[in-house]
Amino acid sequence: MAQLIDSPPPYVDTGKFLSAYYTNQLAGVINGVGGTVFGANVPQWIDTGENTLNETDNVFSLVHKYNSLKIKFDQVYSDQVVRVYLSTDDNKTGIKVYDSGQPTGATTITIDLSTNPGGFTVDYNQLYFVRLYISDTSAGYWRLNKIYELNSSTIVKPTLSDITSSTVITKTYLDSLGNAARDLRNRLQPSSIPFVGFNIRSDIAGSSNSYVRYKMKHISRWLHYGFQSANSASNGTKIYMNGTLLQSFSNNGNIYVGAFDMQNLPGGIAEPSLGAEVEFRWDVYVSTGYFTLYYFWELPYV
Amino acid sequence: MSFVPTDRVDQGDTVSHATFQQIKDNIYAVYDMIGTEDINVAAAYNPEHGIHFLQTEGSFLTIFHTYQYLVFGSSGQIVDPSGVGDPIGLSDPDKGFGIYELEGIGWLTYGMMYRVEGVTWAREVEYL
Known about the structure:
The structure holds 2 protein chains of 2 kinds.
Chain A: H1 20-38, E1 44-45, E2 47-49, E3 60-63, E4 68-76, E5 81-87, E6 95-101, E7 105-112, E8 127-134, E9 142-150, H2 171-187, E10 195-200, E11 213-217, E12 222-228, E13 237-241, E14 244-249, E15 255-261, E16 277-283, E17 291-299
Antiparallel strand pairs in A: 1-11, 2-9, 3-8, 4-7, 4-9, 5-6, 5-8, 10-17, 11-16, 12-15, 12-17, 13-14, 13-16
Helix pairs in contact in A: 1-2
Chain B: H1 17-34, E1 39-41, E2 60-64, E3 69-73, E4 76-79, E5 88-90, E6 98-101, E7 113-117, E8 121-125
């Protein structure tokens, strides 16, 4: 059976007994959303380039939940045009719903799906596809951060009291826990976004042009990696965190499997703040053979 | 504030305030981590088929097995990274995207990671 989060318990009634069943059901929901948030933390791939990205060269998939579709760029330039195509058929480019020049810098394009842009319609929980056209630039390297839907309902952390051994637990208190469980369960069903792995046959390195680049929110202690280095006489495989060299590995064709302890990083590099967005870049050098990055993600265990 | 899964209680046990305090602390830990923006992130594609294709032939997608169905575009295969399980071929129909029922794979269990090779895109979904 697929891993789904338990349903929250029903609201309680004053005067009724508090059962183990209720407690376990409540704890089960919170344990489940905790597993979603604090479990496997798969980073998003940050694609970058200076040449044109044609709409036939990419396809992003979404299960439709929210009407505000966002295309976030870390970098575009004023000599570029971006077009967005939407389709419910992965064999078709789809409907062009956006076509515009961009300002230089970071920017986010917003498309309101509730307006059926260009006649595009998609049902709740239906799979659909986003394709981008990004024109080339002579000003540098464009960088796509991520594509996502934004819920117009902002997350609001409830105010819940601490309780002690002398606290009288009331229906009001238990229902407040139940409401929090409902809110989190509605928002945090497990996702299954794939990690984008690479098999690379030539050098790709540099703070501007390496497309072996990922972003994630720092959540868990252990940053796991698994890769096979290529053979290169002059350079090793390098991992950078927010532009700082984390580690260099010899290029000897070996498979490297390990985990960084984010609380004890090499060279005394400070752990990023919990919840902060972190960018990782791999500089890859290949003289012979291939570089293969199998996985790279955070887990709460080593 | 860290997240510590709450243990089950058995009928007849004494449920202490500590259990509910832990549930409350865990609720706060989740809210503190997720922030205020509720987002649904798109799945990226296999870079073997993108603009870097001259360098990225043989690239793939790695997935933590979470849901029952794998949906995908183009042909490829599901691969056990350990090499123990046999690869599973994937073929895309002429119309619509490909669908594979993952519970039919004997070597694949929920929570396990596996690779999807050859396809242009892939992800798991709960419903069809």
